[in-house]
Structure to design on (119 residues):
């Protein structure tokens, strides 16, 4: 009885083709102040900061946390508004001498300083 190793079996050419990767969402620069985030949608937040490090439901609200090193944190509370959640509260915290604007910039995924979301 002959056994074939899986690596020796080739798939038909059409099965090897993959569709083009989806285009990444447009990136938006972070705002200069946390209060500018009030009313932002989840889509807006993803475009500015990527996925949050922590995201949890608390009744009708969603609590999101973004983290950049030990220097700064951004807490957001989103409530349903019409058919999608929007930021109703935004607050930043810092552990070092960092301005609000610098903190928000560090949370930008393009800065390389924000923490990725946990699996």
């Amino acid at each position: 009885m002959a056994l074939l190793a899986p690596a020796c079996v080739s798939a038909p050419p059409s099965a090897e083709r993959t569709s083009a990767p989806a285009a990444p969402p447009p990136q938006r620069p972070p705002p200069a102040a946390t209060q500018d985030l009030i009313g932002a949608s989840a889509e807006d937040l993803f475009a500015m900061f990527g996925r949050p490090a922590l995201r949890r439901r608390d009744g009708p609200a969603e609590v999101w946390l973004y983290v950049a090193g030990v220097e700064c944190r951004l807490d957001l509370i989103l409530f349903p508004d019409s058919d999608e959640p929007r930021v109703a509260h935004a607050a930043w915290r810092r552990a070092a001498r960092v301005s609000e604007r610098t903190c928000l910039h560090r949370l930008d995924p393009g800065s390389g300083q924000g923490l990725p979301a946990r699996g």
Summary: The longest strand covers residues 84-94. The helical segments are 13-16, 42-49, 100-107.
